[in-house]
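Please describe what follows:
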Amino acid sequence: MRKTIILLMISLSLFALVVIDESDNPEATAFNNQRKVRYFGSEAGKIGAVYSGYGYVWYGVSEDNGATWSTGTVEEGNFPTLDVRVVYGSLPVDTYPGALERKRYPYFEWDVVWNINTDLYAELYACQSPPSFNDPVPSFGSPLLLMRCGAPETGGVSFSPPAIEADGKLYHVVWEVVRMTQEPPATRYEWFLLYARYDTNWEMVDTMEVIDHYYTQFPELRSPSVTCDMDGNPHVVYEKNDTVWYVTRESGTWSTPYRLNLSGRPAGEPFISFWGDAVYAIWRETNPVSGLGEIYWQERNLTTGQWELYPQVPPSLDLSMDNHWPQIVAGEYVTWSERDTATGDWDVKLVSLGGDIYWDSDDPVNSRYSQIDYSDHGYVALVWTRGNDAPYEVVESTFVVPSPVYYSVSVGGEEPSPYTVYRDGYIVYPSGVAVDYAYNTLEYELPYLDPDYAYTLVVVGYHESSGRWNELVKVDGRKGKVLKVEAGIPETLRIEIPSPYYEDDSAVRLTIRRLTGDYASVSGIYLYRGIKKTHVSGGPQLSGNKGVSSGFYVRSERGVSGKGTVIEVSLPEECKVNLRIYDITGRLIAEPLNRVMNAGVHRIRWDTETPGVYLYRLEAGERTATGKIILVR
């Protein structure tokens, strides 16, 4: 069931198009089965990217949300895919004497996988940048050969661009192999879809597995895509015989392939990602009349195991254009490449499934092969290949976006949600608003909570009787707030869930108990994911130097009274600080601060009772930080 974003806004690019690097490869950021851009770390603005150029695999890293980039080479090869793990550990005492050892500090580990195809063999490689304390710039070691396949004497062999996803403990890799043998009078092709798991040292776990295999008279090398759910189960989409298929692996067994393009039209270029309680598959189909590509997506709820009934088209898809290479992240944000059939020009698109965001590169220079990732700070990074001739540009833009619902609980239906533990029934009021109700206590179990993230629970109370009803909302029987609901007026309650509640079982129990009124009732339950606060937003805090941070950082949090916000800034030295607040149209709303401040950690309060989405820009000396503030009633 589609989730609803409560807060809507238009997209806003933080920076104009930024050039990361140049490349001689017109497919520098291809293909869409792979993840080539990743946000990482608890601080806003750390982005990693990989791409192809001049016969090498390259990386780019930004520490300021895409404003500036550092680049370097990994190794010879093409079509890389990327994952960045954040490993938490103790701070080395010999590096930072006096540091508080009981705190957890982030170490960043980059892992890149790519392929090399020659006339004689095909190879698959991985390369790792060892964990580095609070330093996002990778330092790669020697490449590791994962697989080598020689060509038959009378034929050839090729590997597809691989896809990789880490589940925190293992790396899941999928790729396709085509072996060609010439057997007069015909040439025969043997096709394999392969899967392997590796530990964090890139040692294979168990054995390589064949997901699918068949013979064909035509070359069928395509690119599979993989994602992992909260339990570490891989989910794979792939193309076979102009059809898009989905499989998953649970308890060591692959499921029966499920066909996604139910229309029966030729389909391909699939991609899959995980968000909340669902996986999202997206692919291209060819219209048999126009011959043009159309984009379709479908959602599978992992609790029920059911796919949405019909594939859907993203908003703003122009069916008069030829559309290719889609990706979807956070269950909400979609990108693809669009070819103008009249001019042959390419543009990159970014939309939200809710329809509130639309962006078009609208560039006189060809733009295609877009890669996308979402940050829980409320940003989307978009990387693509730009240019008509070599040298081509690898470019990036960063967008401020609403935080999508991690997942929602279906309430007010004839059948209870799979997350419902207890309700007495449901009511559909004359206004059309539907609720779950219980004469005493509503109860829900909310799973899929990753201990490495923070979560906010939003409960919407509603009734159409009379007067004000009070309901006590509790999480795991501990943290509770009173929801006061006037008749006919939806009332929203936010609860920040303490991380110890879900560290052991990745779940919490939500109860809504009637205090006054005829019954307890809710019209909506939404879960949002955010960045978990760590002890090192800007670097380690050293004992004996209280209040002085070793680095610069800025973060915002809701005011204690629930009104306005508090912006915390850490200054490594004395400097002039200017803080400005804007609305989503870019209009200046307030300037809470404009003066010189001493080194240290400062908290700046901005009071407002007006709900909405705001942007802030803080300038501290030569440093600049931008961010988003969301205020709800």
About this structure: Confidence is low (pLDDT under 50) at residues 1-11, 93-103, 534-550. The domain at 553-631 is CATH 2.60.40.1930 (Immunoglobulin-like). The first strand starts at residue 12 and ends at 13.
